Amino acid sequence: MRQISLRSAVAIVLAVGYVAAAQSGRGDPERVLTDRFLFSESDLAQARGGQPVAKMLANAGANELAIGGAIRLDGDKSRVAGWIENIAHFRSAAELGLARVVSDPPAMASFADLALDAGDLSSLQKCTSSRCDLHVPLETIGDLHAKVQWGTPAAASQAAMLFREMLVAYATAYLHGGDAALGNGFGDLVQRATTLHEIVPAFADYLQRFPAASLSGVQQRLYWSSLPTENGAIVSLHHLAIYRGTAGDIVIADKTVYSSRYLDVGALVISLQDAADGQGYYLIAGSRVKSSSLTSIGASLLRRTIQRSALDTVRTYLAWMRDSLAQPPQGEPQADNQRTSGRPVPIHPVGR
């Protein structure tokens, strides 16, 4: 795997994989960082001073990667939630590729902006029932051979149509049957996110049992994203949920329910907690993703390479958040105002 692909995969970790730590109004965030993320006094001093800190977490499985990070920020923490809520603009500004919200029920129109580059098309053309560089179900592989006229000018549009149909099917299955319908292993992943279960058990239960569970105070949507890499784009489908509790709690979760490359499943939670001294708040983040690539031949070197890149990327991401939030809020896009009670509602796609 080329280095640029590793960096791109790490970017997706940031986009899809946070398992984080604290809730507003519930204790000292620095205690969470020391007890859960094993921050040293030096780490705390850096985070307290507005410098990003990131550490590997030790409780990841053989095929998992887990990172914790934090930074102390000034201002109104609800601004972060409102910013991420407009996910298409947020990902564009963070240089995490194209993103679009998926309607409910999912429809082809939601994926109209999805394009396949030469790397994607080459990978799809080579897919067989026994080997495929992309995560594509057998039914779609059969359609790629039967319905795409490879080598003709029509091949690109035909393959893109089938890929969009596949994503509509994934989105529909998830909204009706959750992770069990996709068999993506998210339940096992979130079970090891013990901090999330201990601090916000209702929200953890909601994420794990969706759509069977509902939770008041949750605003949510599905969205897809496409991040270009040297070997082709990483196309992923996400469930974004923002939980605002009665005590002013703000917890933001982003689940990856499908990824075309590298990752099997991921979970993202960003927790915003007021500082104990009342001055500003902590943005506490951790990432946990599951990838079969981490147990392949040569996985030891791959893991070390990804870990180094991931730590650098988390620090860069947190610094980017700090610097961006330091800018005046005038002109920021307004987030979609629709609310849910833990159930999908129709949400129209928004542009960058």
Protein architecture, described:
- The chain has 352 residues and is an alpha+beta fold.
- The chain has a single domain (3-104, 167-325), classed as START domain (Alpha-D-Glucose-1,6-Bisphosphate, Chain A, domain 4), CATH 3.30.530.20.
- 39% of the residues lie in helices and 20% in strands.
- The protein is built from 12 helices and 8 strands.
- It has an 8-stranded antiparallel sheet, with helices on both faces.
- A hairpin with a 6-residue loop joins β7 (265-274) and β8 (281-290).
- α7 packs antiparallel against α8.
- The protein starts with a helix and ends in a 27-residue tail after the last helix.
Structural class: alpha+beta
Strand order of the largest sheet: 1-2-8-7-6-5-4-3
List unreliable stretches of 5+ residues. 1-7, 12-25, 333-352
Beta-strand proportion: 15-25%
Apparent shape: globular
Instruction: Please write the CATH class name.
Output: Alpha Beta
